[in-house]
Amino acid sequence: MSTVQISAADVNKLRQQTGAGMMDCKKALVEANGDFEAAVDLLRKKGQKVSAARSGNATSEGLVSIALSADGTNGKLVALACETEPVSKVEDFRNLAQAVLAAAVANNPATAEELSAIALEDGRTVAETITELTGKIGEKIVIQEYVNISGEKIVSYIHSNGKMGVLVVFEGANGADITEAGKDVAMQIAAMNPVAVDKDGVDPATIEREIEIAKDVIRQEGKPEEMVEKIAAGKLNKFYKDSTLLNQEFVKDSSVDVRKFLDNTSKGLTVTAFKRVQLGA
């Protein structure tokens, strides 16, 4: 057993550096025989063990953060996920979410893997920092999704619960102020969850599935076989109207679809891409 006397000042110093609990810091210093750096390593290993133990746990809570470039041509979204809602409200978790987003803005990584490898101000990578906070809090924490999207004009929306975010790429604004219209479309995406911008963006497998489901329903209704294809095509068009953004009825004015609403806002204005991220979905 160690005979080294561990002072309260040493414990506090270790706590300030690592963010770990007082008792964990004291235990690490005792185990490390007073060696400060060894104690830091022990606490990091503890975080790795907790992270490994909880690797299979569901992460349905967390925080979605968004940053837009000054010129509005790039948007970045980070969805930092945890297991429970109380942890998503903890200051350390929220600070980490902002630090990860800031790292994304400063370094412009293309993927979540690249983002995880970026070093933060204290020299630790994003991945190491997440592991250490996992050890401190005792819950699995992951970057559930990272989005880096560019275009003529990006508009963003974050839902009031902080668990859903939307980035929308607009083209054809021609200098018009589309802030309000863009926000309306972003909120429509949040509420209606379209599968694509337009018909040609729908996954062929999805189209095939919709057609087959429609045919089965039509046959169960006893319709003649020669009518099945025609009725199925009509149902597919209904699917496009309900599930693709530009063809959806505009939520704030059902007399027009989103395509028409945008064209009325500024001739030629359209959406070319969007990304909707929801924690727990």
UniProtKB/TrEMBL annotation:
<dbReference type="GO" id="GO:0003746">
    <property type="term" value="F:translation elongation factor activity"/>
</dbReference>
<comment type="function">
    <text>Associates with the EF-Tu.GDP complex and induces the exchange of GDP to GTP. It remains bound to the aminoacyl-tRNA.EF-Tu.GTP complex up to the GTP hydrolysis stage on the ribosome.</text>
</comment>
<dbReference type="InterPro" id="IPR014039">
    <property type="entry name" value="Transl_elong_EFTs/EF1B_dimer"/>
</dbReference>
<dbReference type="InterPro" id="IPR009060">
    <property type="entry name" value="UBA-like_sf"/>
</dbReference>
<keyword id="KW-0251">Elongation factor</keyword>
<keyword id="KW-0648">Protein biosynthesis</keyword>
<dbReference type="Pfam" id="PF00889">
    <property type="entry name" value="EF_TS"/>
</dbReference>
<keyword id="KW-0963">Cytoplasm</keyword>
<protein>
    <recommendedName>
        <fullName>Elongation factor Ts</fullName>
    </recommendedName>
</protein>
<comment type="similarity">
    <text>Belongs to the EF-Ts family.</text>
</comment>
<dbReference type="InterPro" id="IPR036402">
    <property type="entry name" value="EF-Ts_dimer_sf"/>
</dbReference>
<dbReference type="GO" id="GO:0005737">
    <property type="term" value="C:cytoplasm"/>
</dbReference>
<dbReference type="InterPro" id="IPR001816">
    <property type="entry name" value="Transl_elong_EFTs/EF1B"/>
</dbReference>
<dbReference type="InterPro" id="IPR018101">
    <property type="entry name" value="Transl_elong_Ts_CS"/>
</dbReference>
<feature type="domain" description="Translation elongation factor EFTs/EF1B dimerisation">
    <location>
        <begin position="76"/>
        <end position="280"/>
    </location>
</feature>
